[in-house]
């Protein structure tokens, strides 16, 4: 899973990037000549992984990962109503979702690029920038379709005419400030749309960056902003980037104590990743053993054979069956002390280790061993 981070200059988005990836990218404003984005990886925090690791004591522990791309805030177009182009557009088009950092903290030494702090205004501003980029893409596509009409072969004209109607309809809705993610499409139209790489079609995660002085009010702020901006394809969370970046550099015990002093329990990383999974419709299954305990990310509703392909295409092709043990069943089996391997022996005796076929819909937390032909 890849999320590309955008935000107006001085929004604290690179601080958020460092908090998510435990990185140390410079947080001073990018220069106008900054060419490369920051790249980082976050290990997905999952208490189930901790429990499974304790039971199997594996040689390797491989949690799920989220990849983050932090785009320079001073990229041409950001906040200027010119849209987004070049390599920055490419990074956004390749993302599974866009993460927009909106500033909600005051700092006289770091004046806001638009003169005052307003998270609501900044969320709307960046959405307009994404829309401008989409409009530019659609205008070019509409123009090409119109120019090609005369030269199209008879069998091509009908498909081209349908696409022209679709592109024109999307463009008109965007001009009325309706992002693509809020528009309705048939299955065939969605397939055509996927080739456009439109930014407002992507799921959006808004991370509102508050100051330490606002942490006590974070739930209230989050509730108010969610009421205005959240939807099935838009999630919103409120965190303090500065505090989370400091916590990311601490040891686990120190971070836990610091959180307790702030009156917070869940880390900002956990909030952002949990919201990302919900936004993209993702879930986790596990493979376990003395050599490796590993978390795999799949889309909700994926069947066993397709899930096997996440491990290796050969396993998907040679799929015979899946031996499945639900995570909660595994925990119940371990009420009495035993190693993970002995738990599977007990699971077979009790009949809770299930034999599932190709079309079994994998559930979140399933522990699976795939049997397959070599």
- Summing up helix and strand content along with how strands pair, one would put the structural category as alpha/beta
Percent of residues in helices comes to 40-55%
CATH structural class of the largest domain: Alpha Beta
Strand content: 15-25%
Query: Per CATH, what is the topology of the largest domain?
Result: Rossmann fold
How many β-strand stretches? 12
Query: What integer is the average pLDDT?
Result: 87
Largest sheet: 6 strands, mixed
Order of the strands making up the biggest sheet: 2-4-1-5-6-7
Radius of gyration: 24 Å
Number of domains: 3
- The total count of helices amounts to 14
Polypeptide structure, described:
It is a single chain. With 374 residues, the protein is an alpha/beta fold. The mean pLDDT is 87. The protein is flat. 44% of the residues lie in helices and 19% in strands. Strand 6 (204-210), helix 7 (218-229) and strand 7 form a beta-alpha-beta unit. Strands 2-4-1-5-6-7 form a 6-stranded mixed β-sheet, sandwiched between helices. The chain has a 3-stranded mixed β-sheet with strand order 3-9-8, with helices on both faces. The protein starts with a strand and ends with a strand. The protein folds into 3 domains: 2-44 and 65-117 and 202-279, Rossmann fold (3-Layer(aba) Sandwich), CATH 3.40.50.300; 129-200, Orthogonal Bundle (DNA polymerase, domain 1); 301-372, Ubiquitin-like (UB roll). The chain is built from 14 helices and 12 strands. It has helices spanning 13-21, 47-56, 86-94, 119-148, 154-175, 187-194, 218-229, 241-248, 252-262, 268-280, 304-311, 313-317, 327-333, 340-350, and strands at 2-6, 38-43, 60-62, 65-70, 97-104, 204-210, 234-239, 282-287, 292-299, 319-325, 354-356, 367-372.
């Amino acid at each position: 899973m890849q999320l590309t981070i955008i935000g107006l200059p001085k929004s604290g988005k690179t601080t958020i990037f460092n908090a998510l990836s435990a990185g140390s990218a410079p947080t001073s404003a990018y220069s106008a000549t900054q060419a490369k984005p920051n790249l980082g990886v976050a290990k997905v925090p999952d208490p189930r992984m901790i429990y499974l690791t304790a039971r199997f004591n594996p040689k390797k522990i491989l949690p799920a990962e989220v990849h983050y791309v932090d785009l320079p805030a001073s990229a041409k177009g950001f906040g200027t109503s010119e849209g987004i182009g070049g390599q920055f557009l490419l990074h956004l088009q390749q993302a599974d979702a866009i993460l927009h950092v909106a500033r909600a903290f005051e700092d006289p030494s770091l004046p806001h690029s638009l003169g005052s702090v307003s998270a609501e205004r900044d969320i709307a501003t960046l959405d307009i920038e994404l829309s401008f980029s989409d409009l530019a893409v659609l205008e070019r596509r509409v123009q090409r379709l119109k120019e090609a009409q005369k030269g199209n072969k008879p069998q091509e004209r009908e498909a081209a005419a349908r696409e022209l109607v679709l592109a024109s309809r999307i463009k008109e809705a965007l001009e009325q400030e309706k992002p693509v993610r809020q528009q309705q499409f048939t299955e065939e139209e969605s397939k055509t749309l996927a080739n456009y790489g439109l930014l407002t079609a992507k799921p959006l995660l808004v991370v509102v960056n508050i100051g330490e002085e606002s942490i006590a009010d974070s739930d209230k702020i989050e509730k108010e902003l969610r009421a205005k901006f959240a939807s099935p394809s838009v999630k919103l969370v409120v965190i303090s980037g500065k505090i989370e970046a400091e916590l990311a550099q601490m040891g686990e015990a120190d971070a836990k104590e610091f959180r307790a002093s702030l009156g917070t329990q869940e880390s900002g990383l956990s909030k952002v990743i949990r919201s990302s999974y919900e936004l993209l419709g993702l879930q986790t299954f596990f493979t376990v053993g003395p050599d490796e305990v590993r978390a795999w990310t799949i889309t909700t509703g994926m069947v066993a054979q397709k899930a096997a392909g996440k491990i290796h295409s050969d396993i998907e092709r040679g799929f015979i069956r899946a031996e499945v043990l639900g995570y909660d069943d595994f925990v119940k089996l371990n009420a009495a002390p035993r190693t993970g391997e002995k738990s599977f022996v007990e699971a077979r005796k009790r009949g809770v280790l299930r034999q599932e076929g190709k079309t079994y819909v994998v559930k979140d937390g399933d522990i699976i061993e795939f049997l397959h032909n070599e």
